[in-house]
Amino acid sequence: MVDPPRTIVHREWTVYDGQPWLHVTCNEITTPDGISRSHHAIRLNTVVTVIAVDDHARVLLMRRHRWIVDTIGLESPGGIVDDGEDPHACARRELLEETGFEIGPLELIADLEPMPGLVHTRHLVFLGRDPRQAAEPTDGEEASQLMWIPLSHTADLLAHGELLGTGTAVGMLTAAAILARPVAADSERSRDTTNTELVTTRKSSPALVRSSSPGTDSSVR
């Protein structure tokens, strides 16, 4: 396949250096149509997202307020990879810090740039199974409610603007597609009869939000 025409970058200089996380540059470029102009670029460290799925095909999400967009919504655990840090190790660290949960083996299910026309920030999305609560969340800045949400609700949550972040949306859609493959013939599991649940931590005990079908185990493990 023939490559498309490329934009040529003639010069780049720093406008703002907010390392280790944020770096803004201005670039002199010539686009494929021959027009020369200046264009800003925002560069961030790699970001990881963890889609932690239990044996009822529910994903562990944080319901939280994002002040920059002034929105309350659902988001999967994750964060920025430190310089020199292994992305897998970062994913486990962020999951434990933000939720108190540990996870089984991690599988990379998405590697993407969510906004490549302006922002360079590689997003790595990991799928993990067998989540288990090992401790209390320790990241006070990321204060949130923890909820188990059925993967089958993903499209509806997206349609109503309730999912925060590209990694969460892509991760849930991809995880749902992956998990549907081996259970397609299992009519019991392919029909979603699971519940939405508010996770309680050991330090607090809000009432659980439950709408379980008979026989469905909705306890937090």
UniProtKB/TrEMBL annotation:
UniProt keyword terms in alphabetical order: Hydrolase
UniProt biased composition (Polar residues): 195-221
Co-factor requirement: Mg(2+)
PROSITE patterns (alphabetical): NUDIX (PS51462), NUDIX_BOX (PS00893)
InterPro entries for the chain: NUDIX_hydrolase-like_dom_sf, NUDIX_hydrolase_CS, NUDIX_hydrolase_dom
GO MF annotations, alphabetized: hydrolase activity
Top-level division of the source organism's lineage: Bacteria
Region annotation (Disordered) ranges: 183-221
Name of the protein described by the UniProt record: Nudix hydrolase domain-containing protein
Organism, as annotated: Nocardia mangyaensis
